[in-house]
Amino acid sequence: MNELISDILIGIGVAFDFFGCLGLLRLPDVYNRLQASTKSVTLGTWSILFGVFIRYGFTGVGVKALFCIPLLFFSATVAAHALMRGSYIFGVKLWEGSVVDDYKDEAGSE
Amino acid sequence: MMSVLDVFLYTLIGLSFMCLYRIIRGPSIPDRMVGIDIFGILVVGICALLVKKTGKAFLIDIAITWAILSFIGTLTLAKYLSGKKLNE
Questions:
Q1: Strand residues in A1-110 grouped as ranges (E)
Q2: Where are the domains of chain A?
Q3: Hey, are the CB atoms on B21 and A45 less than 8 Å from each other?
Q4: Comparing C-alpha atoms, which of B34, B39, B45 is closest to residue B16?
Q5: Which residue ranges make up each domain of chain B?
Q6: Given a cut of 70, is residue B88 above it in pLDDT?
Q7: Terminal CA-to-CA distance of chain B, rounded, Å?
Q8: Contact present, B82 and A85 (Cβ < 8 Å)
Q9: Could you give the CA distance from residue A41 to residue A48 in angstroms, rounded to a whole number?
Q10: I need a labelling partner for B52 at 20 to 30 A (CA). Which of A8, A69, A77, B3 fits?
Q11: Rounded distance, CA B69 to CA B46, Å?
Q12: Is there a contact between A48 and A14 (Cβ–Cβ < 8 Å)?
């Protein structure tokens, strides 16, 4: 039973990873690519790690997999935010179909 | 006969090749860095799957270490992009 639930969770995670990487490949802009891929790939990896935790329970491996989830939560989101801010300051133009640029005034005043 | 885990594992390896395409063909430098960041997160998932497939317990330690190192590497690259020194 645990084996089946773990396989289903890992399948959901692989599907989220697939859609995130599809966004990385197909979208037109560096901001759109980060927006699409970093969140869904992080969620998919959480799901895979949680599936491993369901399979192994509260043993050494399972607790380490459970520990990896908040670690990935903080590190992936902070890294994506820093990367987006850095690429704005680096001077990457927005895609011509983008409709709003709220960060322009704030970055200009620094 | 391939099991379900083999199918998932090969799918994840194919996804990392999609990231590799973005790293090689990315039009600008930030595009390549996005590819590196996403690749680092994918490898954590691959290591966790390998734990379930092979039953070797040390691979989950590699996953944790890879998550931390990928975080530090991406922060350093973002700092380089915004044109500041590392101690600012």
A1: none
A2: 2-109
A3: no
A4: B39
A5: 4-81
A6: no
A7: 56
A8: yes
A9: 11
A10: A77
A11: 16
A12: yes
Residues with Cβ < 8 Å from B34, sequence gap 6 or more?
Answer: A24, A30, A33, A34, A37, A38, A83, B22, B26
pLDDT, tens digit, 9 for 90 and up, residues A22-79: 998 888 888 888 888 889 999 999 999 999 999 998 999 999 999 999 999 999 889 9
Which tokens is A12 given? Answer: 């959901």
**Neighbouring C-beta atoms of residue A109, cutoff 10 Å:** 6
Mean pLDDT on A100-110: 70
Q: Are A66 and B63 in contact (CB under 8 A)?
A: no
Residues of A in contact with B48 (CB under 8 A): 45, 48-49, 52, 65, 68
Does the CB of A7 have a partner CB in chain B at under 8 Å? yes
Which amino acid does the sequence have at A95? Answer: W
B49 has pLDDT over 80: yes
DSSP annotation of B84 reads: -
ipTM of the prediction greater than 0.90, yes or no: no
The reported pTM is 0.89
Contact flag B70-A68 (C-beta cutoff 8 Å): no
Say yes or no for a CB contact (<8 Å) between A76 and B71. yes
